[in-house]
Amino acid sequence: MANVSTLRFGAQTDEVTSLLRIVNMVRLGEAVTRPEIGRVTGLGRGVVAQRVDRAVEMGFLEDAEYAPSSGGRAPRTLRFRAEQGRIVVCALGGLHVHVGVTDLDGEILDEAHRAWDIARGPEETLDAATAMVDDLLAAGDGSPVWAIVVGLPGPVDFETGRPVAPPIMPGWNGYDVRTAFEQRYDAPVWVDNDVNLLAAGERARRRDEGVDLIYCKVGTGIGAGLVSRGRLHRGANGAAGDMGHVRVPGATQICRCGKTGCLEAVAGGWALVRDARAAIESGATGALAESVASGKELTPEDIARSAERGDPLAISLVRAGARQVGEAVAALVNMFNPGVIVIGGAIASAGELFLAEIRHRVYELSLPLATRDLVIKTSENDTREPVRGGVDLAQEQLFEVSLPRWFSEGRPTVAAVHGLSG
């Protein structure tokens, strides 16, 4: 099946667009020898040779090992020079910062993680994040940064790279995150909601499927990333998938956003921690209560782990939260009709206990047609997932969206990628 980048350039045959197509074909492994390129593109042998030589001269491709012979002389394969640039991903969560550096193929070369409260504001937070990035780059081989992706735990205007009224990020509304990174690293930057990065990582596993997917993250907060026919759906103002602030009928808890009865205030990790403390103060017993009595600071991860181990209080909290999340997901299923739902986040790490309750509510409340072929699964629960998703987003923006604007320069620049005049 031809992928999006192949189709995009398939109807054009001039030198520049055929060069773009050939580079992308080799990068994606669709055709890696000159004869294969000729068969796929319909270009003559001499034209293919000219285009490949030009791509090699520009530094995008190089000759690699010989392919198996099909009866004549074995053809030489080509490889995309993924080592020529670096992609940086900076995933900011409500209570952590995770940064990673990869090559252009997405191989993770180095990463770092630290606890951090996003409520400390943009200046402090970005200073901490960029210091982590600087350390990783200083430990590398000096290859230039080609792209930076920043994930934020709130709605983002993707076109401007600015947060839009993020409920748990005081002082961040309208802050120019993109320019702050571009000026420091002289590389194009894309800023997106953190759950969209996770959804992009799941999309990358199904790149050829044109998937309709929902990634639902249930951690300290709750949010969803929506993928429609292989494309991230962000909405008109970057608020698509902000399911954590959907009203739960009859709920009276005050949310961190200031409203009453939000899903996050009922089933988010911070809400379960609140309810666990209240239950323990009222006399609840068990391993979770003993942990709190010992002076340990209670976290959403503690509740999920305790539920897995059979603690009655933790199980009741996780199940109650999963029922509410399941009802919200069921509404999304009826409206969006996804083929795959992936459940991730700290609370979702409780595993089958959490997933089974969500499945039950979704199948109970959704239309039979919408659930007929639906797959509901947990995420890979890999701490590197935000980095992998950020890389997928960067590759999409570099090589599918903006490549024609910067290709002739040999590497992406801020002005070329964003279509700015010199």
Structural write-up:
There is one protein chain. 44% of the residues are buried. Strand 3 and strand 4 form a beta hairpin. Helices cover 43% and strands 18% of the residues. The N terminus is likely disordered. The strands form four sheets. It has a five-stranded mixed β-sheet with strand order 5-4-3-6-9, sandwiched between helices. A five-stranded mixed β-sheet has the order 12-11-10-13-14, sandwiched between helices. It has a two-stranded antiparallel sheet with strand order 1-2. Helix 2 packs across helix 4, helix 3 crosses helix 4 and helix 9 runs antiparallel to helix 12. By secondary structure, the chain is of the alpha/beta class. The two termini are 39 Å apart.
Structural class assignment: alpha/beta
The amount of helix comes to 40-55%
Question: What amount of the residues lies in strands?
Answer: 15-25%
Strand order of the largest sheet: 5-4-3-6-9
Query: What's the rounded overall pLDDT mean?
Result: 91
Strand count: 14
| Amino-to-carboxy terminus distance | 39 Å
Structure, briefly:
The chain is built from 17 helices and 14 strands. The protein is an alpha/beta fold and 422 residues long.
Helix and strand topology:
Elements: H1 4-9, H2 15-28, H3 34-41, H4 45-57, E1 61-66, E2 76-80, E3 86-92, E4 96-102, E5 108-115, H5 122-138, E6 145-152, E7 156-157, E8 162-163, H6 177-185, E9 189-193, H7 194-204, E10 213-218, E11 222-228, E12 231-233, H8 263-267, H9 269-281, H10 287-293, H11 300-308, H12 312-336, E13 340-344, H13 352-365, H14 368-371, E14 375-378, H15 385-401, H16 403-406, H17 414-417
Parallel strand pairs: 3-6, 6-9, 10-13, 13-14
Antiparallel strand pairs: 1-2, 3-4, 4-5, 7-8, 10-11, 11-12
